[in-house]
Write a structure and sequence with these properties.
mainly alpha, Rossmann fold, binds adenosine-5'-triphosphate, binds magnesium ion
């Protein structure tokens, strides 16, 4: 049997360069070898956006467009909408018994995200416990491999622990998933922050126009210690060079720029201009495909509905086994 991939994204906005290098690139690369499912995690998006459910529908569509734009082939990859697979909620409830409060409280990614979000009325239980529902997402599809960014590693570890407990306690039904981190485990933001993230407003989106990309690149954070173009600059930890390393295929040009930057013989403007050129080359075909699909909403809708139907069938089959293993398929005979 073909091995399976499951990954997902929260429809809190369109996808950006960080998603691409952290996870999407691996999904595109592996779609021919693996039976692949991508989950648009709208239920998870609600955990910190429950006051604005009206934004979900449009964002689910945008994320689907991004998938198609980067080259996920709808014949190979099933696009699944989380809220349309209610079996996920059921599995989440069963998993809740297998995780302690202390374990949830130790999750470093959730801790960090809670700090960032600064929940005014306290941390919602749904947000705090989302690693459990994410474990249900992964395991209901019996995924072997999960291509993710580095911030998701504690979630995969949590899923593995739950699987081990479940299989030991009830019966070996579930598969222990492995994480696959992308070429860039954590792409920094254009503001120099540790992570490009929709919620932080430091992104270059895959669908951004040429003009927007130019503006965002030209206003990027660089080396704060450098005041004049003739000052020797720092390349390490400078997000402009991090992006060059990832998105500029002309390695000789990148090396030359780095050398000149260190010596103080190149200005920020030129380094950014060349980055913009490289990014444009990378983004133009994605933008074109996005526009093509954008014109054909009926087709995108069909891809989403069809993918969700196939995904739900897999989820239902797993749940039959889960209930059976948990002695919940009562016969009362
Ligand atoms: P939000 O701020 O709403 O949480 P996000 O930008 O963090 O949005 P997610 O939908 O939470 O995006 O993440 C989807 C996937 O993309 C995850 O596998 C995550 O690890 C990966 N990812 C997100 N941002 C980055 C980044 N800057 N670098 C590498 N991978 C990333
Ligand atoms: Mg996130």
């Amino acid at each position: 049997m073909q091995k399976r991939i499951l990954t997902g994204d929260r429809p809190t906005g369109p996808l950006h360069l960080g998603h691409y290098v952290g996870s999407l690139a691996n999904r595109v690369r592996l779609q021919h070898e693996y039976d692949s499912y991508v989950l648009i995690a709208d239920v998870q998006a609600l955990t910190d956006n429950f006051e604005h459910p009206e934004m979900l529908e449009a964002n689910v569509f945008e994320v689907a467009l991004d998938y198609l734009a980067v080259g996920l082939d709808p014949e190979k990859v099933r696009i699944v909408v989380q809220s349309m697979v209610p079996e996920l909620a059921e599995l989440t409830i069963y998993f809740m018994n297998l995780v302690t409060v202390a374990t949830l409280e130790r999750n470093p990614t959730v801790k960090e995200e809670i700090k960032q979000r600064n929940f005014a009325k306290g941390v919602p239980v749904g947000f705090w416990s989302y690693p459990i529902s994410q474990a249900a997402d992964i395991t209901i599809f019996k995924a072997d491999l999960v291509p993710v960014g580095e911030d998701q590693l504690p979630m995969i570890e949590q899923a593995r622990e739950i699987v081990r407990r479940f299989n030991r306690l009830y019966r070996k039904v579930l598969i222990e998933p492995k994480a696959l981190v992308g070429a860039m485990a954590r792409l920094p933001g254009t503001d120099g922050g540790a992570k490009m993230s929709k919620s932080l407003g430091n992104c270059i989106y895959l669908g951004d126009s040429t003009e927007t990309v130019r503006k965002r690149v030209m206003s990027m954070y660089t080396d704060p210690t450098r005041i004049h173009p003739t000052d020797p600059g720092h390349v390490e930890g400078n997000p402009v060079f991090t992006y060059h390393d990832v998105f500029n295929p002309n390695k000789a040009e990148v090396e030359e720029l780095k050398e000149r930057y260190r010596k103080g013989t190149v200005g920020d403007v030129e380094v950014k201009q060349r980055l913009f050129d490289a990014l444009e080359k990378f983004l133009a075909p994605i933008r074109e495909r996005r526009a093509e699909y954008g014109k054909n909403r009926a087709r995108v809708r069909e891809i989403i509905m069809e993918g969700t139907k196939k995904g739900r069938a897999v989820a239902q089959a797993t749940m039959e086994e889960v209930r059976d293993a948990m002695k919940l398929s009562y016969k009362f005979a």
